[in-house]
Structure formats: C-alpha cells, structure tokens
Structures
1.
Amino acid sequence: MSDSVMLTMDQLRVGLYIYLDMKWFDQPFAFGDFRIKSEEQIRVIRSLGLPRIRYNPELSNAVPGPALGLQDKPATPAPAPEIAAALEAKNAMIKRIGRQRAATARVTEAFVQTAKSIHAIDQNLFARPEESVRQANVLVGQIASSILSEAELAIHVMGETGSEEMYFHSLNVTILSMMMARDLKLPPPIVIALGMGALFHDVGKRNIPDRLQREMEAFTPAERTLFELHTVYGQDIAKRLQLSLPVQAILLEHHEHVDGSGFPAKLKGDAIGLLSRIVAIANTYDELCNPVNIADALTPHEALAHMFAKLRAKFDARILQIFIRSLGVYPPGSIVELSNGVLGMVTTVNTSNPMKPMLMIYDGNVPKEEAILVDMEHESDVSIVKAVRPAQVAPDVYRYLNPRKRVSYYFDPGAPQKPR
C-alpha cells in the first residue's frame, strides 16, 4: 500500500496500525490489519516470524519506537498462554464463520423459494383467485409463525438471487412489517392480517399504466391523481378477493400519513389503522432504498436517518422508533468503519441486539468467497464508529464488499431456537 511504511519488530508500539502480510488462517488475530492495543499483542506479533511489518501512520495514534536491530535476531516467542488464548479465540471465530455461511445458504434458498411463491400467487391472482388467496394465507402464516417464535430474530441482507426482483418489494415490506409487529407484540391473527395486507399492498397498481409506475420525473397533476388511485383500486380488488376488512384497510391506507399529508383521504393520526401505519413505514423505507431510478437510492443507513430527520412527522412516532431500534443505526447492507480502521458491510442484524450486527470484512489477503465474517457481539476490542457511503470507498473495496444496488431482506427461518 502506498500509505504504509515498513518497520522492524523492535519498533512496534501500542497504538500503531499494522498489516500482517500473511494468510488469515496462519495468524491468530481476528483481522489481518488492526491497531495494536496491548504489549501482549506485540509479543504475539513478534512470534509470527515476520522480520518486518507494515504500518499506516494516518491510522495510527502512536509513533514507532527507534530501530534497535532486533530484526537481525530470532523472533521472540510469545508466552504460551497468550498464543493459546489468541488461537482459541481465532478457532472459535472460524467455527462461527462456518455456521454463518451455512445460515446464509439456508436463508438464501428460503428467500428464493418465497419470492417464487409470491410470483406464482401474483400470476394466478385473477385466474385462480381462491387458490391464490389460500396460498398467500399459507405463506404469510408460515412467515409469521417463524418470526414470532424466534427468541432472536436475525434479518439478513440478500445478494443477487435470481429473476424475481419485481416481487422483492412486496416481500421486503412484508418482512419488515412483521418485524415491527413482533416488537409491538401483536397477536398472531393480527400479524397474519398485517402480512396479507403488506403482501398485497400494491395490487391496485395493476390498474395503473406501466408508464406511470416507471416514471422517474415529477407527475403532472392528472398523472398524480391517477397514480394515487391505486390505493382505491387495491381496496376494490381486495373486496373482490374477499380479503378481510383489516387487509382492505391496509391496501387503501398505506400511503396515508399521520400529519394528514398522505393519500387518498388525507387521514390524520389514529384515523389511520394501526396496521396501515406499520406498512406505511416499511413501504417508505423500501422505496427510499429501492426507488424506480436506482441512481436515487439511499443506503439503508441514509434511509433510516432521512426518515427520522426529514419525514418523522409523517409516521406514528412509536412505531418509527421501534422500526429504527429493530434495524439498528446500521441496518443490513450498510458499509461501516470499525474503530480499528477496518471496513465491512453489515450482512445480518439481530433485532434483539441491533448495535452488534454481523459484518463481512474487507481483507485484501482473503479471497472474497472466503471473506471474514465477524459477529460484533463477540468482539469486545472493536466497535462500529460510522457508516460509509459506497462512493467513499476504494473501487477494490467496493467490489469486494459488493453493497447491493437493490437491497432485499429476509429472516433466518431455520435458526436454532434459544430459550426465552
């Protein structure tokens, strides 16, 4: 690296940001580059057999010591207990990474199958309405049962998973709405109605010209009026499908805002149903992250910040607070910088401890397909210090972390149960 300087081992000091130029599996530390925090770490580093080591002056909060010629001497072996402790922590981390990779594969498969199910439901909605509604009820019931029964709900950001993208918005809104319902402790039958309303919330757009749905510029007044009618059309379709009254209300009200600025009826406050207020938050968040014009997309972190800072008056304050608390300040898909200077992307957030998410770490010495996964719940030495815009990271880091242009979420339907 152009910003790194070579040091001899005797120059190591606490506070230097160093790079271990060796394979990740051959060294006992969680990261391949980090800021030294203790004399014990220095002794372990000196035992690795490297005659010299690179450090980054800009990321360091100390200066190297004088060169005393230790590079010509054999490496100083670290005390056995310190090496053993470091290796034990590394081995435990490797096992966690293995479990996380298995969970990711399981979640991806479940996500793809769910998206395909939604596709089939949508395709047959009018040709076989009774069967389609039955299938939707079964699907929503399965999702609700899994989400409500988990002691800890893990929400994953999904990668590129196939050709069902047009159904990801409905799925995102459904998952995020149920996540809020879980924290609101709504009873299962109500959660089922919420899930059905979230799943079908945009069904009225079937009666809106495709051109308006792909519109990237401002609507004319007439176009705006027509577009807003998709909520009324949605309620009409829900009646024809004999969906329940709470579901019909969601389809009609999911664009209403508590300050009266929404549509179609400009309802205020509690005049908007609770379930509609939940879906309104999930829908707005996903539209900010996944707009029609992807160039306008906000990062998940920016979307939450924008909703809180600029749009707060439009939403139920208590539900918005629960939503932000559940996804965390750094929701899945966010690029973050750690206190040791390392960059990573949030891949999974545990809604019971959202400030300690799972990260995929950038390390140029580790192949992307074997990327280090760090569970911040197990890391006491480092913390997340800030979110980073994708445009602010180097191209090679961006390609490695691959933050999603379109963000989709799913939960872990097969996570091991923990006692409450």
2.
Amino acid sequence: MLSLTWDQVRERRLMRNFLTKPAARRNLSNTVGELCCVQAQVLSAAELGIGFRVSAADQDTVRDALWKRRSIVKTYGPRETLHIVPSKELSLWMAACRYTRGINCSKLDDLTIAIGEVLDGRNLTRIELAAEVGTRVGSWAKDALSSNWGGPIRTAAYTGRLCFGLSRGQNITFVRTDQWIDDWYEMDEEEAIASVILRYVGTYGPVTPEHFSGWFGLKREESKRIFALHSSSLEEVSVEGEQAWVLASEMKKPWKQILESVFLVPRYDCYVLNSLKQRRSKRNDNKNLLPDKFRRRILSYGMGRLEGAVGLKVLLINGRVSGMRDMDIRAKHVSIRVEVFERASAKLKEKIAQQATRIARFYQRELKLSFGKLG
C-alpha cells in the first residue's frame, strides 16, 4: 500500500483545484466541473472562487458565463445547497442529487409538475411562482414555495423543472431548465452518482466513502456500496496511518511534497470545504488543514463561530489555514486587511500582496492592503 504524507495530499489537492496553476479562460465551465461544482450560498464568493482558478478572469468573465453565455448555471446541488454547475453536466449532477433524495421522475407530484408548467417561457420571482402555482394546486402550495427552504423548489431543480435565472433587482428569479440551457437531458440516477463519486475521488482524494457521504449528503451504506462496486477504478493508500482511496489511474503520477504557496481564498472555498468538511476529527484537521494552534482564533471570529474556517475568507500558506482577511469593495478600490496568525516576514507579506492584487484585478479596482488583527 502506498504511504502518503498530508503535505503530499495538500499539494495534489491544490493542483487539482487549479490554485497552483489556473485553467485557461476558455475552460471556465470545465474547471467548475472538475471542482465538483462550486458552492454558491454567497454568490459573490462563488464568483471569486471561480475567477481565482481561471487565468485572466474577472468578475465580468464569470457573470457573462453565468447569465449571458449560460455555460454555467446556478441551482441546488450537493447537500441541497446552492451551487454553480457546468451547463453541459447539469443533468449529471441533478440525477446524482435525485439518487440521494430518492426522487422518482415518473412519479412526480402535482406541485412539481405545476412548477414546470407555470415557468414555461417565463422568468418569475419566488413570490410570483408561489402565487401562480398556488392558484393551480391550492393555497398550501403557495406556502410551501414561499419559504427559502421549501423542499418542492429543490425537487423541481433536481428534476429539471427549474434553475435560477437573472435576478430582478434584489429578487432572485427562476426559469425552466430546458429553456435556459441547451444541454438538459434525462440521465440514470445510479450511473450519475457513480460518475460523481469517481470525479470527487479524482479531485479531492485520498477520501473514504464516509468522506463522500458527508460532502454529498448520501447515506454512508450507499456510499460504501458504490465505492465497492467500482473498486477496480480505485486504489487504497495510507495517509499517515489513515486508509483512504484514490483513482487507480493516479497511482503512476508522482506525489510531490508541498511546495511553498500562498493563497487568499473566499468563504466556502472548494479546497477548504472539501478538505475540512470530509474530516470528522480534530486530529485529522490538525494534520490536514487547520492547525490546532489556530483553531481558537478561527472559532472566535465572525461566521467562524458557526461554520469554522469554511465560513471565513482565509489565508492559506502551503495549503493550510494560517490567517484570514476582511474585504470592503468601494466604487474605485478594494480594501483588504489580512490577519496572519504567526509572524509575517517581508517575503510572506509580498506574496500576500500579490494575492490581494489578483483579487483587486478580479473586481477591476485599485487595491488598498493592510495587515493586522481583524475586528
């Protein structure tokens, strides 16, 4: 069995996340797919997370792909949370989500069917959609659709009845998926979940079935069953005493030791989320991504109190959480303040400044950078 260190694992993940080498601009949609989609609870964070991984991309680049060219789509994804998904793979990811929730497209209820009918050729806000579906199905349907956590909306997304359209002012809107993109088709759910698992292992491995379950929201026993079913495509390795799986096709590629790197990543960043959320113990977090000596500070600040490092804009040094930042976007400049958890050398500050400059360029603004403890 191949033995790996966490340094080697982090280096491979940074590379697979297009952080050490951004993808070509023409491959923006493919990049989102390789990342296993991008969480979009905070859309601006998702935009920056994508832009950081695509060479010479700015906010307009990402927004054009999302709302004009529609090569990527905003919809519900893994764990029933908002994600950005490649249009050409939307059927794959929605079928995998249906598998997780046990949705049978041949037995949809009147509410889900009505959603698709009401959205035919239209772009409606949540309130408008709820009112019209309620008129057709009953007032109970209006109440069910009015909630931001309404299950029927997710069911409609996973079955291709809707995805997000261009917002109208401050209001989100929904459109019919098959009319928003040209790539929608029906796909077998079990085939889809197997493809998603292999993609996830390729990007974030080494992982275990339990790790995938925590990330995607699939029952552990089902995850184990599918891993076992596709064991010929997988290879077991040891990461400092912990057994996990990688793609068999990856075994011949060299696992490099961690190279010196610095990144400023947004909230809910793919690399951070998929390196922490899959882990169930502080011991592994300490070795893997979040050193114990920095944990208390992370848990004391902002959304870190509720979500840990995943909910913060963090500084990564050599692939590990080593600081955090705040940002204020104004008409002509971006103010970024970085708190480094240990003494910052002049060389480190210079590398952080390079990262901050990339963020300012993404927003097409001038940069104002400072260092110090965040409020």
